[in-house]
From TrEMBL, chain A:
Signal peptide: none annotated. It comes from the Bacteria. InterPro entries: MetI-like, MetI-like_sf, UgpAE/MalFG_permease. The chain crosses the membrane at residues 29-55, 90-113, 125-146, 227-247, 286-305. Residues 88-304 form the ABC transmembrane type-1 domain. Keywords: Cell membrane, Membrane, Transmembrane, Transmembrane helix, Transport. This is ABC transporter permease. It comes from Sphaerisporangium rufum.
Length: 314, 455
């Protein structure tokens, strides 16, 4: 790049008196050119559909009587709609159970793999990450069959001990069935993020810790975990957003457990049903926006509570 | 400032990006055309006769290709361009999107009869009575025509139906020495007898088959919906009458006593249960044997294990026949030439060759009277039922006795709400009567919200 500076240096000198006045607009133009392609796609594929959905959500279309402007009536209806509320309550409960579980599993494995260096560790790392590479749909169908009491191994396994297999697709246990699927799918991915963060820690710190008499546990708890807190918070935010928008797994399992998983099982599924099965795009949009609001509030509250540690998001 | 060079670089990058976009665009154009139903360039079938007007059509009958080819071969004035965009709900969702968008629907569409009012009320279907109805009126029974009509207008051409009957496991019945129950009271007694002897479930109450429950309620005298398009704002919703409550209580009772299973139907779990003899009976429609055969049931060593008897009755002196499922061809409001589209709808699955292929392969239970009155069809020995003449014994009388139903213009909502109540009934958190009351409240509230006056 040296020749660039050589070339530009004389020009800068020549134009020096007026450079400021002339370069500014051109710099702006350059900036827009750089941002342009992104901004175009961003506006066309994100902002415009969002705006349109917001616009739709302010109307109500009836089978009899046509379309009318109702302002925020759809939102008022959503927040008093038992289907929407039970869906939100489900994903909130699900977040409280599934997210800590996923992160605990991911953290435990990352710490183990960081401490052990062998060929087996590398192999394990790949294997644990593998579920993330399997498409959600296929993963959900696969688990659906594993849970099946006719096809799955559960009946055999429980049969050896003389018990009857639990129905993980049934109303009582579907919560745990889904928790397991989600953990299986995502723990490996979070593990990789945490593992990468662990690799970034200066080994000198471990040495210093050991000189001060810290054991393996203390190194893990007092040095490693505090130092990867930013990464932990990052995956917490990821998983919080993802879980509140829970859709794929229950939507797939519906075909195997339609009576257990209703069309309003999660808010996203409810929005989908309203828009595409009942042709109620207006209310579907309102539910989506209401859910978006809830996600925003949850994430903001989370970030506020952890504001001292969130250097990565600033 | 390195303006010149960077300018050049940016120009090059933009050019490359533009080139990339340009390279993408033909593909994109193609895929939108494939998604839109009104485009004749993306048929699944091959149209051999060129330069004829083309009618686009969506449908999912398993032998659709043959049916379309038969039609195209016989016609020199119009050709059909067929696309399979998915079965049942998958297709309806695409159709619904096309309706909302105002573009993208095909000219002719296959719909289940219970969905016709849902689309009709959105003005998405065309009344085909003026396009040659009289010529084919005699080809179908009154019940079939009622199912495709809203008021006096006809919105579809019936193709197949689903008269209900009781499919049962002959081996299980023989083992526990029971004969096919003729009434629902006998059905319960037989179920108890089998259970007391340590036998399998006698039947199944699936939460995901609300249309079956509706048919069973109608059998006892329920009239879930009344609707007259002459007064489009008024709708009768009666989901909590005594007949509806009785039937829900009956099945809830069977489930509570463990006499029937509570597995969702059409799931691998349920089918494997049917194969393994976990259910002594399977209350289902005339298309069920074909469905089971397709799922691999009744072949090999299973041959002849299944038999079929008429649907049990509440009052054997006054038998009532009911129906579950069945489809029709309708002309959409987006059809470019409704008269031509109606010609396709009337003629598509109505020729002898297609109908014969449909019923001999158990793909459809035809509603065309040419077949229902054809001695070959009536006397046919059905391999799935061990070579019995089940059309003559069970299905044709059931189809003859069917009087038709008024379906609701918000069928999807009603079915979803019913599924919710059936799940609760199976769980035991409500009684049948309570489930009916809640269903009534739920659906009536929805109807009001949609602008109807509920009567």
């Amino acid at each position: 790049m040296t020749f660039l500076t050589e070339e530009s240096a004389p020009r800068a000198q020549v134009t020096a008196p007026t450079a400021r006045g002339r370069a500014r607009p051109r710099e702006h133009l350059m900036g827009w050119l750089f941002v342009g392609p992104f901004a175009l796609v961003f506006l066309a594929l994100l902002i415009a559909p969002l705006g349109y959905a917001l616009y739709l959500s302010l109307f109500r279309r009836q089978l009899i009587g046509g379309t009318g402007f109702v302002l925020f009536d759809n939102y008022a209806k959503a927040f008093t709609d038992p289907s929407f509320r039970s869906g939100v309550w489900f994903v909130v409960r699900f977040s409280l159970v599934a997210i800590p579980l996923q992160i605990a599993v991911a953290l435990a494995i990352a710490l183990i793999l960081d401490a052990v260096t062998s060929l087996f560790a590398r192999f394990s790392r790949l294997m644990i990450f593998l579920p993330y590479a399997i498409p959600t749909v296929i993963g959900a169908v696969m688990w659906g069959f594993l849970y099946s009491r006719s096809f799955g191994p559960l009946t055999d396994v429980f049969g050896w001990f003389g018990g009857t297999a639990p129905d993980l697709l049934g109303g009582d246990l579907i919560f745990y069935g889904l928790t397991n699927i989600v953990t299986w799918q995502w723990a490996g991915y979070y593990m990789i993020i945490l593992y990468a963060a662990l690799q970034g820690i200066d080994p000198a710190l471990y040495e210093a810790g050991r000189i001060d008499g810290a054991g393996r546990w203390q190194v893990a708890l007092r040095i490693k975990i505090p130092l990867i807190t930013p990464a932990l918070l990052l995956i917490l935010v990821f998983s919080l957003i993802g879980t509140l928008q829970f859709f794929n797994e229950p939507q797939i399992l519906r075909h195997l457990a339609a009576g257990t998983i209703g069309p309003d099982f999660t808010p996203n599924m409810y929005a989908y049903q309203q828009a595409f099965a009942l042709a109620n795009f207006n209310y579907g949009s309102a539910i989506s926006f209401a859910l978006g609001g809830i996600v925003f509030v949850c994430v903001y509250a989370f970030l506020f509570l952890t504001r001292k540690r969130r250097s990565f998001l600033r | 400032m390195p303006m010149k060079r960077t300018n050049f670089m940016i120009a090059a990058a933009l050019l490359a990006a533009a080139g990339g976009l340009a390279a993408c665009s033909p593909d994109q154009g193609k895929s939108t055309a494939a998604a839109g139903g009104n485009d004749a360039s993306s048929c699944t079938n091959t149209i051999t006769k060129q330069n004829l007007p083309v009618v686009t059509m969506w449908g999912w009958y398993p032998n659709m290709r043959l049916v379309v080819d038969n039609f195209n071969k016989r016609h020199d004035d119009v050709q059909v361009c067929w696309t399979n965009v998915g079965q049942g709900n998958d297709e309806y969702q695409k159709f619904q999107t096309a309706i909302s968008a105002g573009t993208g629907a095909p000219d002719v569409i296959m719909v289940e009869m219970d969905r016709i009012p849902t689309f009709q009320i959105q003005n998405a279907l065309v009344d085909i009575k003026k396009y040659g109805f009289d010529a084919v009126k005699a080809d179908y029974g009154a019940g079939a025509w009622k199912d495709v009509s809203v008021g006096g207008a006809v919105y579809g051409v019936p193709v197949d139906g689903g008269p209900l009957a009781m499919i049962y496991r002959k081996d299980v019945f023989d083992k526990y020495r029971i004969t096919p129950p003729k009434t629902w009271a006998e059905y319960e007694q037989a179920a108890r007898k089998v259970k007391d002897a340590g036998g399998p479930h006698f039947g199944d109450l699936g939460a995901n088959v609300p249309a079956l429950m509706m048919a069973l309620q109608i059998q006892k005298g329920a009239t879930p919906f009344t609707y007259d398009p002459a007064r489009p704002k008024a709708i009768g919703v009666r989901l909590d009458d005594q007949a509806s409550k009785d039937v829900l209580d009956y099945w809830g009772g069977l489930a509570r006593q463990g006499l029937v299973g509570t597995q969702n139907q059409f799931t691998p779990e349920y089918i494997s249960g049917v194969i393994n003899g976990k259910y002594a009976t399977y209350i289902s429609a005339a298309w069920a044997p074909g469905y089971l055969t397709g799922a691999g049931v009744g072949k090999g060593k299973d041959t002849g294990r299944f038999a079929v008897a008429p649907l049990p009755q509440w009052d054997p002196a006054r038998p009532v026949q009911v129906n579950w499922g069945g489809s029709a061809f309708a002309v959409t409001g987006q059809a470019k030439d409704p008269a031509l589209a109606a010609k396709v709808a009337y003629g598509l699955y109505a020729d002898d060759a297609s109908l014969a292929d449909g019923w001999t392969n158990q793909i459809i239970f035809p509603l065309n009277l040419k077949v229902l009155k054809d001695p070959e069809f009536v006397a046919a020995k059905v391999a799935f039922f061990g070579g019995r003449q089940v059309n003559k014994e069970v299905y044709v009388p059931a189809a003859d006795g069917y009087r038709g139903v008024t379906y609701s213009p918000f069928g999807q909502y009603y079915y979803d709400a019913m599924t919710k109540q059936l799940s609760a009934l199976i769980k035991g958190s409500v009684t049948g009567a309570q489930a009916a009351d809640r269903l009534q409240q739920d659906v009536a509230a929805y109807a009001e919200e949609q602008g109807f006056t509920v009567q």
